[in-house]
Amino acid sequence: MALDKEDTSERVVAIARRLLEEGGAQNLKARTIAQEAGIAVGSIYNMFGDLNGLHLAVNMRLLSELGERGAAAMASLAQKQTADTRERLLGLALAYHAYVQEYPGAWAALLAYNRGRVHASETAPYVDRLDGLFQIIADVLSEGEPYLSKEDAGHVARTLWSSVHGIVTSGYAAHSGERKAEEIWRQVDLLVTTFLEGLRHRKGALTDMGRNA
Amino acid sequence: MALDKEDTSERVVAIARRLLEEGGAQNLKARTIAQEAGIAVGSIYNMFGDLNGLHLAVNMRLLSELGERGAAAMASLAQKQTADTRERLLGLALAYHAYVQEYPGAWAALLAYNRGRVHASETAPYVDRLDGLFQIIADVLSEGEPYLSKEDAGHVARTLWSSVHGIVTSGYAAHSGERKAEEIWRQVDLLVTTFLEGLRHRKGALTDMGRNA
Fold first, then answer.
1. pLDDT 10s per residue in chain B (213 long)?
2. What ipTM score was computed for the predicted complex, to two decimals?
3. Nearest C-alpha neighbor of A155 from the set A209, A210, A213, A93
4. Contact A66, A99 (CB under 8 A)
5. How many Cβ atoms sit within 10 Å of the Cβ of residue A2?
6. Between chains, do B194 and A186 touch, taking CB under 8 Å as contact?
7. Please, what is the end-to-end C-alpha distance for chain B in angstroms?
């Protein structure tokens, strides 16, 4: 019985995910989901509270998958014995780019969801999972660039993530299609390589300047 | 009579903009707009083709305003005789941040619209306007960092815009509210300052490496 309940909840999340991928949050309709899952509309609310709760459940799934992709990228780099910070950061960025290209609709819906939230308490586990992703990047930085304090590594990790994210999702590229993906990747490469070069030159000045805005 | 038509179209765009600001693209309903503007639903389609056309008209307005803000920031920097590239780039980033904070809903809808477009031909004037914004940044770079080729200045301008955009719109900050805005700004400062430092050290290597992805 408990297993059945889990099965149903899994199925509902999978349907919701597909709907989000196809048409964003406005495509998430309780009636459609209930019909497809062969359950009553009320069951959805019993399981997830409301449609936001269901959307959050999908987002948790997406963040988990992205975390797994990040871990897989790190494992593959370790196998090649790549200790170079630039290559490791580009490997992680590539994993992110690939994931967003694979699920553009669901990922855009996650970003829109993120923007819409007001109460932090509601999304605490969500933020925790996001923090776990930043930590992968922070660890790469701490290992390869030992002059960074722990706090600075975290700050740099967030900044790099947000920047790569901006390049990958906005895609302000001069070309479209195949060449667009190529240009996005050129931007990511320019960003990571140049930023890292600057970081190594700034070193000591970092802590002061980062707070000097 | 021609003037009346322009007035009506202005009014429709203003209503659409408010609706987009309040609830995104799914809030853009022809019936609501027609009712508020006191015109027939058909008139909206006559003027803008469809709701996408109307959304595009709002986006053109937003990009124009953003261009004006950028020009105003540049004028204010010129008055202070600021020739420093970092300060000028941060001035432009600040103008962008302020604009997005002022119209978060309409700007998020513009980004979502951007993601959804397939046919480049449809959005050519839109892309032109976006290019105009990149050009402001490229000019700052060409003036302050003369070792950059014209092509590299454009490439760097796009990369910086996308990065700052990612930081400002995703807001992956550890804190919320007041402190969140502060941390976003710390990330922008870290990005611009460190990237510029790296750029100055890479110089000649830039053209090769940027294409080596």
1. 455 777 899 999 999 999 999 988 889 999 999 999 999 999 999 999 999 889 999 999 999 999 999 999 999 999 988 889 999 999 999 999 999 889 988 988 887 776 555 455 566 777 788 888 899 999 999 999 999 999 999 999 999 999 998 998 876 655 556 677 888 899 999 999 999 999 999 986 776 444 443
2. 0.85
3. A210
4. yes
5. 6
6. no
7. 57
DSSP A26: G
Are A156 and B190 within 8 A, CB to CB? yes
**In Å, what is the CA distance from B45 to each residue of B12, B33, B41?**
11, 11, 7
Kindly determine whether residue A188 and residue B158, on different chains, have CB atoms separated by under 8 Å. Answer: no
10 Å CB burial of residue B81 (0-12, 13-18, 19+) is exposed
Q: What share of chain A is helix, strand, coil (3-state, %, to 5)?
A: 85, 0, 15
Q: Search chain B and give the residue with CA nearest A114.
A: B170
Alpha-carbon distance values, A165 to A184, B23, B96, B141 (Å):
11, 24, 17, 23
Q: How far is A42 from chain B (nearest CA, A)?
A: 25
Q: Count A/B contacts: CB-CB distance under 8 Å.
A: 148
Question: Which residues in chain B have Cβ-Cβ distances shorter than 8 Å to A182?
Answer: 213
Which of B114, B182, B195 has the CB atom closest to A195's CB atom? B195
Closest residue to B170, CB basis, from A162, A197, A206:
A162
- Contact predicate A125/A60, CB 8 Å: yes
Chain A interface disruption, residue of B26, B159, B176, B183, most A CBs within 10 A? B159
For A143, the token pair is: 């290992």
Inter-chain touch A190–B196, beta carbons under 8 Å: no
**Mutating which of B89, B162, B164, B168 best tests the A interface, going by the most A Cβ atoms within 10 A?**
B162
Cα distance between residue A107 and residue A105, in whole Å: 5
